[in-house]
Amino acid sequence: MNEQEFLQSYDITKYDRPSLTADIAIFAIHRFAPDSYRHEPSRELSLLLVRRGQHPFRDCWALPGGFVQREESVEACALREVAEETGVQPSALMPIGSYSKPGRDPRGWVVSELFASVIPDEDRLPVGGDDAAEAAWFSVRFDEAADGSCSLRLQNGQTLICARLKLLQSRFGRSSFAILDSGALAFDHAAMIAEALCALRESAKEFEVIFDFLPKRFTLTELQRVQETVMNVSVLPANFRRKISEYVVATDETTEGAGHRPAVLYEKK
Amino acid sequence: MNEQEFLQSYDITKYDRPSLTADIAIFAIHRFAPDSYRHEPSRELSLLLVRRGQHPFRDCWALPGGFVQREESVEACALREVAEETGVQPSALMPIGSYSKPGRDPRGWVVSELFASVIPDEDRLPVGGDDAAEAAWFSVRFDEAADGSCSLRLQNGQTLICARLKLLQSRFGRSSFAILDSGALAFDHAAMIAEALCALRESAKEFEVIFDFLPKRFTLTELQRVQETVMNVSVLPANFRRKISEYVVATDETTEGAGHRPAVLYEKK
DNA sequence: CAAATAGTGTCTCTAAGACAATATCAC
DNA sequence: GTGATATTGTCTTAGAGACACTATTTG
Fold this sequence. Notes:
2 copies of one chain form a homodimer.
Chain A: H1 3-9, E1 19-32, E2 42-51, E3 61-62, E4 65-67, H2 74-86, E5 93-99, E6 110-118, E7 134-144, E8 149-156, E9 159-171, E10 174-181, H3 189-205, E11 218-219, H4 220-231, H5 237-244, E12 248-254, E13 264-268
Parallel strand pairs in A: 1-6
Antiparallel strand pairs in A: 1-2, 1-4, 2-3, 2-7, 5-6, 7-8, 8-9, 9-10, 11-13, 12-13
Chain B binds a DNA duplex (27 and 27 nucleotides) through residues 36-40, 219-221, 235-239, 241-243, 255-264.
């Protein structure tokens, strides 16, 4: 039997196989208008969640995602889902990991691939509040204690989701968590969100992902605030500028009308 | 309809689904006996490959792996495969990524999860040469040119596999490659191997994975050689010792009978 | 003592952090 | 000028790399 004959007689669907989904943690940094036009806006890291309209976990909040289709890579599926949910094409998908623990989905054998992506606040679509598939941006607060226990707080107006997790391990630039209390999050999405967030922070350290939060041209202070907001730290402007200088290039454009010294706009090198 | 009723009537197998495999790149560092007992052995990074006994890609070399079974996580499947192929339980699995490009498997819609794992040379089983599923260790040479083109050379005695790749991107601590010439490797395994190797090198930088190549107790020179072999660089002993000191703890045991000053054995802290 | 590997001390240079100072706008 | 943010200069300190040196074994 040659290879062609083998393939013609071979039926891969004889064997047991899982359903496969791609889920995406879409982050943005939301700017809040300041009291006075002369002040800097405040900023919050935000995550897009959808409220499930169907069983299981009906009315729970979940990461956007969907089943991977034939003739489509997992990445293409994730990109399609981002476009459907936000109308935006993110500049890069960060692969976070796969989730395949038996029993993680009450519908049956479902394996999920998780990606993180980042979009500029400017491109964010206003998300409706009473569609069939309701979507909303939640501000993210994630605190890790020294003993590995963590709390993940997601807030959208009156809606507060508070999950509790425990760090299992942190190797190879990825962390993994066990869920102690999933709040009102569907499936194992609490752990997924925590792991995506850790990967995002890790990547922000190396300035790999922070540009994706901003439009093409930006000021260095904006860029610095992005890193500070994502990593939940604060750095000195002089040091940030020294380190970032090799990754950016100045344009001849500046901000204006801000009531203080104008800032030079930069682009990613 | 409540959740229980929904789940009872829900048949997930109505929808189209892929087959799912877990593949593993198992690395070890092989020591070659020196000319004289007083000399250091030479070392080579090695990778375990299996020769396919069936279509497709019959007689080609491939990464060990297999279909994920129901009630088994992808990680458990990878560990099971490592155990079957080497008889060894690796101390950690490094997730590398998922491979889902349409057409990557002529049998149909197959998605593969790739892991890397590392085992000590001491635990390596002698692999047979004429089984149904022939397995063999190949020495690994991987060179990246400045323009992104790479060559991957795998050698076992007379058998030389030489694949050519092109770096597509390197973000988030992972590299991805396009295959220009897969040598005699099955499927897209040439790219998988390159990506696993890059992740391994990345991880060796942070001393995360180098301990797994050695038994519980080891000398600092051995540990240094592991890092040098994996990353294909050489470092000065004084500097290596200074950096590694925070990760190791000395025991009261030393080597002996080596024809030179005995070395203190260390353990991972 | 010779040959081999094991292990230490220290100089230099670079990068990171801290802090102070100056620049430029709107009003 | 005042108040705000933008931007630069430089001091100090921690770490990486280079190199020279000492230590301990077998034969």
